[in-house]
# Entry
Amino acid sequence: VVPADDLAEEAFIVLREALKRTKKVGLGQLAMRGREYVVSLKPCGRGMVLETLRYADEVHKAQGYFREIPDDKPSEELLELAEALIEKRSADFHPQEFHDRYVDALKDLIERKRKANGKKIIEDKDTGEKTGSNVVDLMAALKKSMEKSGGAAEKAPAKKAPAKRAPAKTATKAPAKKRA
# Structure
């Protein structure tokens, strides 16, 4: 959060410094994306950070969600293999490697509709469903993953953007039939 203009700077600085001195955060509500959010406002360097929070009915204790998971301890061999894989695949975080696929798909759709000049866009439905068993031998999967990543520690490859689909086919109208 930054001041809107020179006139707002003094009030902004006073509020920021008062929050710092009192070691408090500001709380309020903000309308965004068609709904209201509870927000906190806290000092951060020369600015302030606004964070969205949860309403009380959205906050739940974790125990209820994890109750069904047993307290079993994994085998030492599996743990060591998993730790080695994590170590080999660890790399610095680069946020630019991640993209909002929903926004990308929406922009792509808008562009295709713009190019279609009012013609209907027909898309192939890719269900992406896989058939077969969901049973996995964890040890075999970890070993296979370790083999793929090689012997020495290496950086994880950058996440690739989703593959672009071929342009959608546009529907063409058949000529109208003449009546006799």
